[in-house]
Specification:
four-stranded antiparallel beta sheet, disordered N terminus
Length: 223
Amino acid sequence: MHNIKKGFGIAFMFGLTAVLTGCGESSDELDDKLNHDVKITLVNSLDYMVDFHVKKRSISTGYSGLFDSDKIASKDIPSNSVANTYNYSYKVTNNMVNFGVRDSINADKEDRMTTTLSKNDNLWVIAWEASGDRELSVVDKKQSNNADVFNVRLFANGNYAVSVDGNHVLTTEKGKVTTYLKVANCANGLKVADKAIDLCTGDFAKSYLLVVDNSGKRVMAEE
């Protein structure tokens, strides 16, 4: 009877091992299924330099530890510029993440948000301001390339009229991204709030995210 129980225990352990390793998959393959990788790029349209922080979200601790020095994903990102892309890996059992930006010089301004991630996400995190209120917004990166034109979509801090070649095409919505627009004239083909948006630093046939306000363009980021 003892030998029967012992044999059953060995068989059970072999069966459990097969299940845990995906019926013959290696531990590395299993780890790959349990971990997902995403790409995150901060767009800083604020008036000051910031550090970008990323930390796994815990329901029990909330935002605690987000602004610790070891959670900096990108440091000293100038005003109206784009940070280097940050690669973040997370367990599939916890796909919540905290994002934060902090004034690099004085550390007296902090903004934060929580979002959930999906496998292979490629995200813009936009730091922006409207009427003294600062926000963080997440937008999926995507391309919509067309030959011989500039392909642009707009993220605005307010509701502004947009025209292409003198024709009204849409009105932006505060904190939302527009559909793609095709612009042939890089110097003044696109206007926001009747302000010409200079696209000439970009390239024809490529796609761009533009962060704008009522004064015009703040950041131009290639998708």
